[in-house]
Amino acid sequence: MALEPPKPIATYLAAFVTRFFIHCYWLAIAWGIIAPSALADVHTITVTGEYRMGPFDTIGDGQRLALVTAKSTALDEAVAYLETSSTLKPLGLNRDELRAYSASLLAIRQYPSSTASDEATKTTTISMPVAVVIDPVALSQQLADLIRRERAKIELMQIRDKIDDYQKQLDKIHDQLQIVKEKADARPVLQHRSDVLNLIDTEEQLAHTWASLLGTRELKEHADHGQRETSRPKSGASARPDNGEEHRKKGALLTQEGNYDAALAEFRLALELMPGLDRAHLGLGAALQGKGDVDGAIAEYRLFLKQHPNDPDGHNNLGSALQQKGDLAGAIAEYRTALESQPDNALAHYNLGTALSTKGQVDEALKEYRTAVRLNPNLIQAYFDLGALLKDLDQRRDAIDAFREYLKRAPPTPANQSWIQQAQAYLEKARESRQERGGRQN
């Protein structure tokens, strides 16, 4: 996915972007928004990323891949420029640090893509222009605040390493697609590529979240000294949403995606903005539990339940953490408490079934699994666990029905592959057994 010489359309567009920014800055001077002396220090970088589409790519694929290339190249050029800036030299940052920290502070502006077809080679190339405007003075102030935050420094370096690794994975996937001939063979590779692109997007969001978190702490420090928050400008890289609920929602989505570090940053920012946003503690608990910090998760759930002692989600989540820790009795008690206030909670019934099954109370577990799928037929894992328990009890007919329902509803995602294979193997064995019995009867 290396950059190739830009096509004429991309060249014209890049030139237009440059002129556009210069025009905007001169207008800003005329309106008194910035001083003429500031213009000399502002540097604009424009880059066009390109991706030559393969036979299995869509336009959307091409745009995303061209954008990844453009962003990476723009960041590299920005860092090369910053290394020569006398304004930033006193900070003593090396290239790797500049690259990691700048990724959270620099805004890369994306512009409409263009498409060029080559009739001779029957290929289509997507061009994606981006621009970065760098104000070394402002950036120096932001970096000086950032490098005082040890946790932020560590997190941003880890994010940069992850993105570098994901980009290497994209190169390997690109090579794999060059040798694939059939669309059926390409499908899992394309899905893997889409997953990697999503991971890159999430890590980039996390990097900017850390910058927002620093901005929030800075505002809080100023408020402690009697300065009003409204006196601070909210433009450029220091701008950040002040709605804690939006950060809570974003944290919930990141938790679902399995990006627990990013989710934790969002939930903590939500609580800094809105300390009374109790449900963010539920989110924190879920993210901590996902990372394996079960004790931390239990503490967050109990903190939430102190304020909301009858909340079924709180008791259900606490039950799952206790079960993960091995406290089956405590988990069962929490699940039952959740169901007292919300008897139709399918997830609580399912979780209770797993705890009862582990404890050896199989009849009660079967009842809970069946209740769970009756209340929510899309709770697919309950079908598998029901089938597995019936299989162990040698209740073949009911086990076959449960596994068939699971296979009918379970999407063929990588996370489900192990369960799908087990269900298919059991059904295949049951079919062979029926055929063998039929042959003996004949």
How would you explain this protein's 3D organization?
With 442 residues, the chain is an alpha+beta fold. It is 70% helix and 7% strand. It has a domain at 8-173. Strands 1, 2, 3 and 4 form a 4-stranded antiparallel beta sheet that branches.
Name the descriptors.
single chain, 442 residues, alpha+beta, 4 strands, disordered N terminus
Summarize the structure.
The chain has a domain at 8-173. Helix content is 70%, strand content 7%.
Low-confidence runs: 1-40, 215-241
SSE string, helices as H and strands as E:
HHEHHEEEHHHHHHHHHHHHHH
Portion in strands: 5-15%
Biggest sheet descriptor: 4 strands, antiparallel
- Rounded to the nearest angstrom, the radius of gyration is 27 Å
How do the helices and strands line up, and which of them pair or pack?
Elements: H1 8-30, H2 36-39, E1 43-52, H3 59-83, H4 95-105, E2 108-110, E3 114-118, E4 123-134, H5 136-146, H6 150-179, H7 183-224, H8 244-257, H9 260-273, H10 279-291, H11 294-307, H12 312-325, H13 328-341, H14 346-359, H15 362-375, H16 380-392, H17 396-409, H18 417-441
Antiparallel strand pairs: 1-4, 2-4, 3-4
